Model the fold of this input.
Amino acid sequence: MKTAPAELQHLKFPGESAAYRAARNALLAEEMELRRQIERVAEHRRALPPGGKVPKDYVFEGPEGPVKMSELFTRGRKTLAVYSFMFGPDVDEPCTGCAHFLDGLDGAAEHIDQRADFVVVAKSPLARILEVARDRGWRKLRLLSCAGNTYDRDYFGDSTALTKAMRKQQDFKPGIEWDMPIFNVFRREGRTIRHFWGSELLYVPAEPGQEYRHDDLLDPLWNFLDLTPEGRGDFDPQLKYEAPKPPARRRRRR
Done:
């Protein structure tokens, strides 16, 4: 465990012990290094060479009708982020992990829109997607159906285009296909649209206790739970939760 510079000044919370402060200072040094590493990774990401040219101008179904991928770049902007939401026509309910993730992004969507275009796509018909949005209270996400195109297959929002070696690596069962929650970012230069980055961490083997964690930096839920003594544990987000029961009233003694 690294130590923080000796000249660094530290906080001291009420009642803490010397042992706590020594351990916390050592952890602070790791947090500082993590901050540097996050920025180093972001710099590497921004420095990627041009990605592959998008093979077609995909047509999505939106609330106002069909919309081409090229039309998703608005106000002359050059960056488009697309999140593939796990909600196909073969399931009754959306993925709980995707739903909680989009709960948070709905709150951030107005801020994201100041810097980049952002859409969420799923393979269900648009009416089903919008029904989920109403149930969840999403108001700011731009939701589209990709049921009529091959976008999810081409950009790994499902498992149908994975190689046999990749399927074996990910322990996907033969003949069983899955929608996958991948995040892809695209860059437009003139009339050419190129892939910039995808959350490929989704498709590397999970390390013990790590699972996918491909969108953790965007997810307030998991980052919040990481700050607690209990950590993430085996918590599994749900679409609905039972309201907490009020505490029972004690009868007054006469």
The chain has two domains: 15-47, 59-203. Residues 18-46 form the longest helix (29 residues). The chain has six helices and seven strands. Residues 15-47 form one domain.
